[in-house]
Amino acid sequence: MRAAARPYEDVVVAAPVTVPYTRHSIHSAHWFLAQALAKLIKTAGIRKSDIDGLAVSSFTLAPDTAVGFTQHVGLSPRFLEHAPMGGASAIVQLRRAARAVEAGDAHIVACIAGDANHVDSFRLNTASFSRFARDAVYPYGSGGPNGSFALLTAHYMRAYGARREDYGKLCVAQRQNALSNPLALFRRKLSLEEYLNARLIADPIRLFDCVMPCAGADGFLVMRRATAKKLDLPHARLLAAIERHNAYPEDPIQFRGGWALDREALYDQAGVAPKDIDLLEAYDDYPVITLMQIEDLGFCAKGEGPDFVRRHSFTIDGSFPLNTSGGQLSMGQAGAAGGHLGLVEAIRQLIGAPLGAQVERARLGLVSGFGMINYDRGLCSGAAILAAEGRRKRGKKR
Amino acid sequence: MPGGQVKRRNPLVPLKPPLVPPFWRSRAAQGLTAAAARGLFALQRCEDCGAVQYPPRDACVECLSARLRWRPMEGGGELLSETLIRHGQELYFRERAPWRVGLVRLDCGPSAIVALHGACEPAPSRLRLRLALDKSGQALMIGLPEKDTPDMAKDPLIRETTCAPRARKVLVTDAKTKLGRAMVEALVAAGADLVWAGHAAPWKPSPHLKALGALAPVTLVPLDVTDESSVRELAGSIGGKVDILINTAEYHRPGSITSRAGVETARAEMEVNYFGLLRLAQGFAPALKARAADGPASATAWVNILSIHALSNDPAHGTFSASKAAALSLAQALRTDLQASGIRVINAFPGPIDDEWNARVPPPKLSPAALAASVVDALERGLEDVYPGEVAKDFVARFLDNPKALERELAG
Amino acid sequence: MSSPILAHLVSDLVAGRIRVVDLTHTLAPEFPPIVLPPEFGESAPVRIEEVSRYDARGPAWYWNNLSFGEHTGTHFDAPIHWVTGRDLPNNATDTILLDRFIASASVIDCSREAAEDADYLLTVAKMRAFEERHGRILPRSWVLMRTDWSKRSNDPVAFQNFDETGQHTPGPDVEAVRFLVEERDVLGFGTETIGTDAGQAAHLRPPYPCHALMHGAGRFGLQCLTNLDLLPPTGAVLIAAPLKIRQGSGSPLRVLALVAA
């Protein structure tokens, strides 16, 4: 039996901010997170002390957690969340923060994620990522996500007939979307030929399947609608959100994620259906995961992802706008900020202030997160549906 | 002429420094290493619900029981997916790219990421899984084709996880004993490129030494492990060439510790069995470490012939057992020292060998040829701990089960 | 009071009228040691282990630790070495009377016989023939058996000369030892081989006569001597003082011979 979650009452997200990504930086995670916080305060026109709730995600904050960070930046929140869930952190932070503001545990919650990227950070992070990874992945030469996703990608291709061209179409479309985004690290047009002929990294994964690790941070605020109105802040409403960890442990190899288990709850809570969604910000740290999300979030049936890809353009001005800022594949992956990237882009589209081009009539956005290849598969999944202000809540339609 | 089996190295190209793969493992995962060290395929199995666990855990993934026991398993499985890692982050893998890795559903339940042998059929296909020790000395799950292929051993994965004497240069520290002779002969049969047969006290006649020296790959060299200058001189002359060192030098006088007054015999045992190993380590280990990445026939292993009584003293061979226990302890230190370079230390724990010093020991006794064969087998399979023969296997089973009981049994 | 004899000795040494001949092998690990059947206790070999050599272990100095059995290298046998001499007075390296350490020596050349027969045994007849040419062997003097065996010392196999019946090296026969002890009252017997007894002396009656009879009578042995071919048949003076080891059965030592130039 699925327990129905109580609907969110007047919870909104506002003030999407990005500390511009850079390939490498000498700055620390503390620096990036503090800059994100400063941008939130400036964008919202509030004082630091107005922030009484904080949620933090970072891989490179060690030895600190969110606790140490409060003293570092002189915050005294009455709600504090440390969400070390990689690409699912944004959704998880949002879920926690939403209930906190609903309950009155906090008034304004700053949700931030960011990571440093020194020259050797990536290797050091993967070397100590998780116990299972250290015991059973890293010693096999597939340390880091490339090897693990290569196995999932190859299996998905064999099981469901996906072709390299299908993955390539997503990557090329996202790059097209990035062209108008001044913060994207990659803003050169990518052709399908370039994608197909790129350097092999871990068969069948080639260079343009992979996100580039970089440094940067993202953030947004969670508050009640009344607070946003009082602050005169453009905002989007939270309609629904789900999360799931270690879904389907019985699957011998990952071909689906927790979304498949929880999507009905998601759409029920929002009172909308997949066809109502105007834009999808999917977690895209390899195109095979985007395909899984399209299937598991109900846009098509399991195994029909490749067909779905062939039927849509995924560009901002085309059919099924996907990862409208260019996604991590074009903007870079700033560690734990990877999940925030999609969420802040969805807010920007829904309040009409995107970094790049605007999706026309963007009323409903779906944001999806995925994270933590603890061993052989990603463990954390989450999704949220956001609505542009002024949109009337429809009745249930499926 | 020796050296013919392997292409010679260009002496003007700098020798590569030895690299090893990541060493860190959780304590639970060391169970895999313990199994691999003995050549077993074992996984944790829940004593309560029977679920097989992988990766190794501290609580049962199904029922949360803490009663997880390492059990030998059938190593069958199905390859679900594979990749070629072409761009590793660790220097070790970068140097060896591309590196074939697969995701396997084990017949006993869990899924595992494994290193794949080149002859494995593409997914989906059936595999044999084994646990092998990698260059860091830790366990690696490897996937082999269902049936052996003729050139199995030439695969990089096998080369990286084993220490085969084929085409390598081996020093046997004492070839004058029955074991030394059998060892040299076994190495020649296993395709060693060159075997240096050490012999001390040349005036003591050896009925077989001359015949050994006449074998094409064998060169007799003077070596007295009790003499620092003798070890140093030989290390100076051949140390930079030795790929495998097999320490067969042994001094053994039977008797209870009260049956013989004084410590001179015990000291003589220590001089060979313990200090001899130390002198050899100081003489030969530095060059071995330096040459651990010297091409396909690099320096690769160090073998100690210990005794099962290094684990628990046989009072009828009291001081001998003690000297072997000391050697075992030193071998552990040597293992750590050599591990950082990827040189494997193999310890053989034979029961009584069929030689003059075990004349009063009732059968079964281990023939020198059988012991030599098990050492070659351990090198070829890349084992770390070898218990050759029935007596040794029985002994170690009893030791692992209840060391105190074994102590009492040995008193009987 | 100074002695004119000692003054003459020194001035003759300085003037080269007296030569000093070294009868000693270099003490080294590879020098062949005595070998007993393996069921017996064994002599420790000579071992020289470096303590430091102007390095981290001792930046300005070089030194070694030494270990060896009492009967290694060129060495001295005291009466206490053998069971027959165990209860005699002054029988150990620390109690032997000092004046015994300087004595004249007769050198009996058996090199031709030893070359022909490794198991050659020196006889009374051979010694009487020596005395006929060179005079009577003096009481309290050394008798040295020259075999040129020391010339084999760079070939340890030939020096030890083992085969499956044991060691084959020359030495005195039983009567020769009795003759030296009982009829000539010698100080001791010296050889170039590893034992004062022949390699096969275990089969004589009594076994090892030079050990049993010589030590039983409180006399000494010198083994592994070299350069005996540089000594005159008579007239050399040996300085042979073992280390002062408490209750020592023998010791490696430096054996010097003073010879008229």
**N- to C-terminal distance of chain B:** 54 Å
Strand order across the largest sheet of chain B: 11-10-9-12-13-14-15
- Content-based structural category of chain C: alpha/beta
Number of helices of chain B: 11
Low-pLDDT runs of chain C: none
Count up the helices of chain C: 6
Q: List SSEs of chain C in N-to-C order.
A: HEEEEEHEHEHEEEHEHEEEE
Helical amount among residues of chain C, as a percent range? 10-25%
Q: Give me the oligomer status.
A: heterotrimer
Which whole number gives the mean pLDDT of chain C?
96
Q: Quote the beta fraction of chain B.
A: 15-25%
Largest sheet of chain B: 7 strands, parallel
Radius of gyration of chain C from CA coordinates: 19 Å
* Radius of gyration from the alpha-carbon trace of chain B, in angstroms: 22 Å
Kindly report the spatial arrangement of strands forming the biggest sheet of chain C. 1-15-13-5-7-11-12-4-14
* Largest interface, C-beta closer than 8 angstroms, per-chain residues: A-B, 37 and 42 residues
Keywords:
heterotrimer; B: 412 residues; alpha/beta; 5-stranded mixed β-barrel; globular; C: 261 residues; 20% helix
